[in-house]
Automatic annotation (TrEMBL):
Species name: Streptomyces virginiae (Streptomyces cinnamonensis)
Xref: PANTHER family: ACETYL-COA C-ACETYLTRANSFERASE, NON-SPECIFIC LIPID-TRANSFER PROTEIN-LIKE 2
Higher taxonomy: Bacteria, Bacillati, Actinomycetota, Actinomycetes, Kitasatosporales
Domain Thiolase C-terminal: 248-396
Listed name of the protein: Thiolase C-terminal domain-containing protein
Amino acid sequence: MPGLTPGTVPRTGRRVAVVGVALSDCGRVDGPTPYALHAQAARRALADSGLDRSVIDGFASAGLGTLAPVEVAEYLGLRPTWVDSTSVGGSTWEVMAAHAADAIAAGHTNAVLLVYGSTARADIKARRRTSNLSFGARGPLQFEVPYGHTLISKYAMAARRHMHQYGTTLEQLASVAVQARANAATNPDAMFRDPITVEDVLSGEMIADPFTKLHCCIRSDGGCAVLLAAEDCVPDTAKAPVWVLGSGTSVSHTTMSEWEDFTVSPAAVSGRIAFERAGLTPADVDLAEIYDAFTYMTLVTLEDLGFCAKGEGGAFVEKGRLLRDGELPVNTDGGGLSACHPGMRGLFLLVEAVRQLRGEAGAGQVTKPGGHLPRVALTSGTGGWFCSSGTVLLGRG
């Protein structure tokens, strides 16, 4: 591309677009290694963009390798001059996308590839790893681990607080899982597509009160990649750009005793910042892709992002609003509850949001009145046990 040399840029303050997205093979993937899934997703995203790999001078990855992202970049044959290995759980990728967009706009890099891959399901099946009860027993966590306070139980306790304080019901939480499964039914890549009912959710195996099995995300294999680039690259891309409109990040706590209010997630801060930077409000959003390791995450994040008032999340989600043809389509691919969840799922939110804005979601495509494509999408990732949050607003045209 004339005027663009990897590692150097001619000016600052540029607009930033997502120019390529892709999934690797997902669901039940027993053969490839996590590195292979990274490579598969990266190749597909680059092909989706129509750009030459030489334009990539930035790279972001987390969750794999001793020196992430150096090992993964080496495996992909990349020598980036800008890197990010921020690791904050499920919000990692929204935080990385915010970092990358800022770096591109400031002129530190031209194009940043974000890539993730995991064989979490296959590893357990092959006994290469086992499920863990905690993230460790050092530092602040040493005061909770001896009491068996697992990640799931932390979310369950927060959900119980919301139920106690606002009257949120088990049926309302279950409806989140039911709607996610209904959205997954039109996604050929979703791991689970058969319909479920509220009663199916309520009668399932108890995992951590009040969460039964269907309140919890699935375990899958899979990977994906997202390529962000400066506006200078857009004339050479294969498809219309999806612009980064605004982003926000926030952290809250590690120790549960330091969490001031179990009914408020850090999305209350990251969302407010993202909307302010984009000059938008929740009323402008056509669809939302929200991290959903558990049903309560979806409900409380919707509240904290301003789609409904605090305490009204139960009433908001129970009326079918989250369905693909609902008032606010949420997790249109089926989310982590039904489509895929190989680990840090936040990057999948960006892929699905871009596909929806481009009109590439097939039978799962969201349309607005008059058959128009959505124009604004929100992605919100949550890390740890509501420890961190990243919100990114994307727009078409």
